Amino acid sequence: MKKILLSACLAAALPLGVAQAADVVELNLGHVLATDSHYHIVAEKLAEIAAAKSQGTLKINVFPSGQLGGEVKLIQSARTGAVPLVVTGEPPVENTVKEFGVFSLPYLFPDLQKANHAMQSQFGKRMLGYLDKHGLVGLGWISSLERNIYGVRKVEHPDDMKAMKIRVIQSPGYVKAYEALGAQPTPMAYSEVYLALQTGVIDAGEASPDTMIQDKFAEVSKYYNLVKIHYMPAILLMSKARMDKLSPEHQKILREAADEAVKHGIQYYTDGYAKSLEQIKAMGVQIVSPDITEFREKTAALYPSLLADIPDGEANVKAARAAIE
Question: Which first-to-last residue range defines the signal peptide (predicted)?
């Protein structure tokens, strides 16, 4: 009995942090971009705020640059609970959440500001709701990424894209949009794009301005063409199974931290957009700003066929457009 009482007294005398060490919950977060990307900025901010709000009892470990796998694997791992948290671009989620196909429609949004406004509105919340039945929780949309054409060819009119071999995201909306503009979408692993462009295997790729710097595509490009065909949303996901295991207090903290991290990430990307274009230009790449009217017109005819394969597609396009009016 004396030993039991002594043990209890010793435990009570321990510093609070030591006494609660066993109660610390650790969650891993994976993404595929570099540490200077807005994916990583969001992840780090999430970890920082969650730790502060929980007094150290909720710890998020961030693994960038595909350390925990590519985006498709990360999404699958989140569904099973193997990777609790993921920051990812939206297109790979379309394999699971068919309704997300609306985001790959060409020229769904007119500019970056309106794309972000729509994703933070009731429309964005409506779209997050589709994740629930797939074992995922949507913690928020971080900044959309403006996708433009980089490579060895200048693009001022759709005719300039004729027979252009271009690596694009393998989503129907991306592939068919580029086909409609006369290009030849070429499937290729992202890790192979730099060398393929350098050696002439492809003529072009499509990417956000910041990615041009982070992944060094500006080193092997002559032009960066602001065609603005897609504004790709990025999303902070969580495994529903792992969320359900958290205490109500930790769930509340995590959602609050996600809200703050999302706002921080949107501002970071917005601030970095112009800086990235200046960096690209400084590396000798010509920035081309074409009139995109013809590009819009040529891709508009794709909507009926693409929407036919997207559940709730027409309703969600209307909701997206209403959100920016």
Answer: 1-21
**Helix locations, the chain, DSSP H:** 2-13, 16-19, 38-53, 71-80, 112-119, 122-128, 172-180, 193-199, 209-214, 240-245, 248-282, 293-300, 303-307, 313-323
Cα separation, 18 vs 240, in Å, equals 30
What digits encode the pLDDT tens for the residues 248-288? 999 999 999 999 999 999 999 999 999 999 999 999 999 99
Looking at the 3D structure of the chain, how many domains does it have? 1
pTM: 0.91
Residue 313 is part of which domain span?
A: 23-323
Answer whether residue 9 shows pLDDT above 70: no
Instruction: Judge contact between 49 and 250, C-beta under 8 A.
Output: no
Does residue 17 form part of some domain?
Answer: no
In this prediction, residue 4 has a pLDDT band, given cuts at 50, 70 and 90, of: very low
Structure tokens at 22: 């066993």
CATH of the domain at 214: 3.40.190.170
Specify if 112 maps to a domain: yes
| CB-based contact 264:42 (threshold 8 Å) | yes
